[in-house]
Amino acid sequence: MTPNTMKAVGLYRYLPIGHAESLMDVEIEKPVPAGRDVLVRVKAISVNPVDVKVRSPKDREERTPRVLGWDVAGVVEQIGPECVLFQPGDDVYYAGSIDRPGGNSEFHLVDERIVGRKPASLDFAQAAALPLTSITAWEGLFDRLGVSSDPAENAGKSILIIGAAGGVGSVATQLARYAGLTVVGTASRPESVEWVKSLGADYTINHYEEFVPQLQAIGLQQVDYIFCLNSMEKHWSRMAEAIAPQGKICAIAETGGPLDLLPLKNKSVTFVWELMFTRPMFRTEDMIEQHNLLNAVADLVDRNIVRTTVTEKLEPIDAANLRKAHAMVETGRMMGKVVLERFR
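^ Zinc-type alcohol dehydrogenase-like protein, sequence as received from the core. Prediction below:
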């Protein structure tokens, strides 16, 4: 190692996670911040389904190591000349952008407009579990579905969160509860039901069974909002039945093919996508809203309204442990988040 290089975990080939070269310990150049970028000393990271998707087997090779990782908590090391939000020494957390190198490295460059202050009440590992899922949940609920943040305006309104025990669902459940909605989360195992209820869900139903009869059994004929976090094509007809007239559906997971929107027509249902990378990827004028919402989530955490969603922790940050974490996420049965901390 030299002063101009750093440790990282990257890939050259896109391989099954059981392969020793699917993720490798590498040494790469340490970046230098310019413009509004901050250079962050990475303390902890988390793994999301997007990491697994990007890394999944495909017929392509990289000439230089590709570094993944879109959940970071750390300390600002240096700032670019145009930075106005942070100073060296600030504790931060963020997800980054899909079109830039990820954070599975000792140091990481990120635009300050998508970085938030780390919740003061959390350590770095606890904070690293939150950025990507918090941004997705917040944007999905408040920007895409248009849910009011005022509980008084949501009295009598309900939301169905499909996949409530996962990373995004774990945060969305807490935010929806905070917003005053009646929260129905889907979960299919006793442990995931318990997890979702512990996060504030009023009710749980099984996503492997028809939705409407289960909703009726808990006193709901239909729901005003649906936030679908997985397998949209499997749930499409059930969502169309369960959504109320003039209701709204938001989804984050890609489909295997086209979906028929016609079942939503008679009810005048709104359907929207949420991708938390949209703002940084397209450098939208409101890109700084991710900075603002991460700070808002940090405030909710420090007020004990939202809690971290760590359920698994690995140490240190290296290729072997990242392969373990990817394998956990690949099962599709993760509750909460898996976090890694500390480079050796």
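The two ends are 13 Å apart (CA to CA).
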